[in-house]
UniProtKB/TrEMBL annotation:
Protein name (database record): Tetratricopeptide repeat protein
Keyword vocabulary terms for this entry: Membrane, Repeat, TPR repeat, Transmembrane, Transmembrane helix
Pfam entry (one): TPR_16
First and last residues of every TPR repeat: 137-170
Protein source organism: Kutzneria buriramensis
Spans traversing the lipid bilayer: 224-243, 249-266, 287-303, 309-325
Family matches, as InterPro entries: TPR-like_helical_dom_sf, TPR_rpt, Ycf3
Gene3D superfamilies cross-referenced by the UniProt entry: Tetratricopeptide repeat domain
Length: 334
């Protein structure tokens, strides 16, 4: 097996550092090897070094200006660096050089997506990619992403599902489908999708971010519900002129309703997401203000029947403390 063949095998296995070492040997023997430069650009893309990816793809084009692969990789690097107009020009050149390869159209759609004036042309390119490769998961994923960015979520969902039918391990398609399900309040399906996407591709940061987003929403919902429970109990305790029994019963019922709501909300989370939520409650100080505020509000609601005026003040203080600590947290993580 020659050096470039070994590099290809290592890339397929995800051993990119070893692949780079093999490609360095190949380029030392033949500095003008377009294939070696393109493979190196592919390695840099996988490891997230986009500037190095741009350099390698530029070297590939220097050795062979008519390399459609080199243009495709350079367009992706330019897109990731935010050079969108350059990316569109480079991707168009890739299409010109190889008009019957679906990969060129996928890159062209990706390059055009941030520029709304190109969405009409991008839609045609996405359709062409699917026409050329209807059994390729990536073509349906790309068209789904484009349609989603244009606001057509129904068509986007249909494309994501087709991408997953063709490739059940397509982590990006699974994550994007879960995002649509989250918008539709399908919490259990959405969190299961995010967890599955992360399991399929642990480097998929967007899936990790989406799981954190769900956890933040759950904690915020429980805190707001606890605050509403406290306010309801405090109002009854302050305005009711009879004995303490009625406010105590109201407090107990409202807290019970809160516990049922929290239990049902947690039950709708996929098991890995629920475990992640418990983990961040123990270990992540960013969520401390919300957690403390929730505990204070529920504790105050239970005691409000006995000490309404004092605990109204505690509730107000807890609200103020939450917003102050949350503002400080946001400032420290900005």
């Amino acid at each position: 097996m020659d050096t470039i063949a070994r590099a290809r095998t290592l890339i397929d296995l995800g051993r990119h550092d070893q692949a780079k070492a093999e490609l360095a040997k190949a380029l030392a023997d033949d500095p003008a090897s377009t294939e070696a430069w393109c493979l190196l650009a592919q390695c840099e893309q996988k490891t997230g070094d986009i500037k190095a990816m741009l350099h390698a793809s530029t070297q590939a084009l220097a050795s062979n200006p008519d390399s459609e692969w080199g243009h495709r990789l350079q367009a992706l690097a330019q897109h990731k660096l935010g050079w969108h107009a350059d990316a569109v020009r480079t991707a168009r050149e890739a299409v010109r050089l190889a008009p019957n390869q679906w990969q060129q159209y996928v890159v062209l759609v990706t390059a055009m997506m941030p520029l709304k004036q190109f969405h009409g042309e991008a839609a045609l390119a996405a359709d062409r990619a699917v026409e050329l490769a209807p059994l390729q998961s990536e073509t349906h994923l790309t068209r789904g992403v484009l349609l989603g960015s244009m606001g057509n979520l129904v068509a986007a969902e249909r494309n994501y599902r087709e991408a997953l039918r063709l490739d059940p391990e397509n982590a990006a398609a699974r994550n994007n489908l879960a995002t649509i399900e989250l918008r539709g309040n399908k919490l259990e399906a959405a969190t299961a999708g995010f967890a599955a996407a992360l399991a399929e591709n642990p480097r998929l940061q967007v899936a990790r971010d989406n799981i954190d987003l769900v956890c933040r929403r759950v904690l915020r919902s429980t805190r707001l519900a606890a605050q509403m429970v406290f306010v309801g109990v405090a109002l009854v305790a302050i305005t009711y002129e009879g004995g303490r029994t009625f406010p105590e019963v109201v407090a107990g019922l409202l807290v019970l309703m809160w516990l049922v709501m929290v239990g049902r909300l947690l039950g709708r989370l996929a098991k890995p997401v629920r475990a992640h939520l418990y983990s961040i409650l123990r270990n992540d100080r960013r969520f401390l203000p919300t957690t403390l505020a929730t505990v204070v509000f529920i504790g105050a609601a239970l005691a409000a029947a006995w000490m309404p005026i004092l605990l109204l003040g505690i509730g107000i203080a807890a609200t103020f403390a939450y917003f102050v600590s949350d503002r400080l947290r946001r400032g420290s993580t900005a």
